[in-house]
Amino acid sequence: MAQTPLRAVIVGAGLAALRGAEALREAGFTGTLTIVGDEPCRPYDRPPLSKHVLAGAIPADATTLPGSLGLDADWQLGNAATGLDRESRTVRLADGGTLPYDRLLIATGTRARPWPNPHEGRLAGVFTLRGRDDAAALRRALAAGPKRVLVIGGGFIGCEVASLCRQLGLPVTLVEPGPTLLARVLGSTIGAFIGAIHEGHGVDLRCGREVEWLEGAEGRLVRAHLVDGARIDADVAVIALGAVRNTAWLDGSGLSADPGGVDCDAEGHVLDAAGRPDPCIAAAGDVARFPHPLYDGQRVALEHWSHAVAQGLYAGRLLAGAAPGRTYGALPTFWSTQGDLVVKSAGLTQGADAVAITQGDPAAGRFVALYGRAGRCIAAVSVDAARWLPAHAELVAAGAPFPPRGTATDRPKGVAVVAPGFP
User: Which residues form the FAD/NAD(P)-binding domain (predicted)?
Assistant: First the structure.
């Protein structure tokens, strides 16, 4: 009797899902492959949305990722997963249908964190930026020439949008409750340098301030009211308050999952509520929370493009049985283009107890900051200095002593070690 082909289901239709599907096939998986996505379109590239699409250089629908058209898969798009029954090994769908699986990859990613007041968040002129439709709608609003754009949140997306507005010649105010831009990610020491560069480009920067409520007139945004009583007149607001991981559909599944992510073991299999790995299920991309070997097994969930690629490929091979007994631990890397400012990083800054400028000069707007913890290098961030980053990434990957020893071209004399200034 012929053996029934295995059935693989991938929930999520983004970058990690696509690379996972490709890896499954390349590793020799010949069974049926179904990809489920809540959006009606094929996987697309997100980084251009806050850059080229908002600038009008390319349309939003020109961001489709290569590789999806020729993939041997059944695409269930615009039909979100709503539940998981591990006993019967089925995924429930929004249209009432179910999909049986023998292997399951969870790659549901994240969604933009909405404005906390739903009524205010629905005002015309208020936007979030996560998906392709978000970018297209915001592009139309910016092209209409608003009198002022308000960006709420000084993380990477907020900084990218503010810079883009200045490129378009639009007045923009960025409100960030932290002490500096990017303080949560890079610390206030480096965040202050980046903030100064943005102010030099004309961004009206309000750090240490917080928007209390958004005022509308006839259903359209007219101004924002700050906690300290100040008001900012604006006809467009971009809510850039971070992301929420898409795990609600796993409620009741018995898996270890919460708004912070889906827990995995060191090999990439998803854990159940008792901490036991399910050998039939893996997770990849933004939604996966896993112990990183470079950081003493600390559980992390990473929202990085390169991580989605690397972990998607790894998870696909894992589910195909082509990567048994290995540990996933790629060095995290990230980049952000903010106008003519390019920020790149290697490693994770969380937990750093010291930082030093080891290359270049912040006053010139071009430098590398190296982060240390307990005398070891754990992360490096370059600002318009990408050519210096690979050497620093090697120090991070090796857990080299911090501060670094020896000399290097353009390294400041007498490297000063200071507190990173995390909130």
Answer: 8-312
- pLDDT (tens digit per residue) in 209-240: 999 999 999 999 999 999 999 999 999 999 99
- The CA distances from residue 189 to 210, 377, 411, 412, in Å, are 20, 17, 18, 17
- Per-residue pLDDT tens digits for 334-367: 999 998 899 999 999 999 999 999 999 999 999 9
Distance CA 191, CA 180 (A): 5
CATH of domain 340-418: 3.30.390.30
Q: What is the pTM of this model?
A: 0.95
**Residue 147 burial (C-beta neighbours within 10 Å; 0-12, 13-18, 19+):** exposed
3-state secondary structure of 56: coil
Are the C-beta atoms of residues 134 and 121 closer than 8 Å to each other? Answer: no
Rounded Cα distance, 399 and 303, in Å:
22
Render the burial of 78-98: b for 16+ CB within 10 Å, e for the rest.
ebbbebbebeebbbbbeeeee
Q: In terms of CATH architecture, what is 7-111+244-319?
A: 3-Layer(bba) Sandwich (3.50)
- The secondary structure element, H or E, covering residue 24 is helix 15-26
Distances (CA, A) of 60 to 79, 303, 315, 405: 21, 21, 29, 47
7-111+244-319 against 114-241: fold identical: yes
